[in-house]
Amino acid sequence: MDEQYIQRCIELARKSLGNTYPNPLVGSVIVHNGRIIGEGYHHKAGENHAEINAINSVADKTLIPESTIYVSLEPCAHYGKTPPCALKIKELGFRKVVIGAMDSHDKVNGKGKKIIQDAGIEVVSGILEQECIELNKRFFTYHEKKRPYIILKWAESGDGFLDQDFKPTAISNSLVNQFVHQLRADEHAILVGTQTALNDNPSLTVRNAEGNNPVRILVDFDLKVPRDFNLYNNEASTLIFNTEKDATEGNIRFIKTGRENFLSALTDALYREQIQSVIIEGGRHTIQQFIDAGLWDEAVIIKNEHLRLANGTKAPDFPFTAERTESFRHNRISWYKKASN
Asked: Is the pLDDT of residue 327 over 80?
């Protein structure tokens, strides 16, 4: 039964995808005599954690000492914007605590579990652990690898081009377009290079889906993109990596960097900015740099099978096998996952 309740925790946690940064996605369920009496999940940073929302939802609090609390991620042990959940669980005296995955964040990392065990409460951990880690792949990558979770994304024609005659060309259909906007809403940031910004004048905002605009990242070493382009509007926080200046102008942050070892400098800077995931949506040159450096976690490739463009920018070289593929009318989306080191 433990798996069933942790699965419910994961379902609850997913409701906040894209809203909890820099916090993880967490769901919690409280069970008394085989019946769920409380549920909750973390909605956004600074608000109650999942366990507190689940506790608050229990109508008859006298049942808590005879109940088990399930949580997809180890309860926190530190004072942040909210008090530690591990102390609340200890104070209320739950009969048992079941944890999906342990928290690798150095402020937690076993401390929450220890507080609860030291209070004499039975603790079981590692239930549906892989599923719980997958739920927070962004959070775990950020804390363990000290960089964001990196998703490569592009659309190509059936004959492997990104555009026709080097001019912007619509490749994906309206169904896929909706999917792309949902992807933006789910991730923390989105990155393009100078050429894509100049060619497409993108906004990189969420329009055909529900959710927050991602942080926009522009790599523009020589600041060639004109100030009246969409990336300079006030619709989203924007980071511009360049070789000329460090400055903040409203929602725009200029981050000065060198061209040497740029990818390493970029990921270090995004780690400092607390960016937990980034979609690389640039042109061939930008995406190929990440592929060649082996610096990616997932790739999403959209292919319009029936479209032949014959000439233009070639799609990136990507010699990997898709984990799964889905058809959206004449478009096919393939998902790739990099094998763990």
From this structure: yes
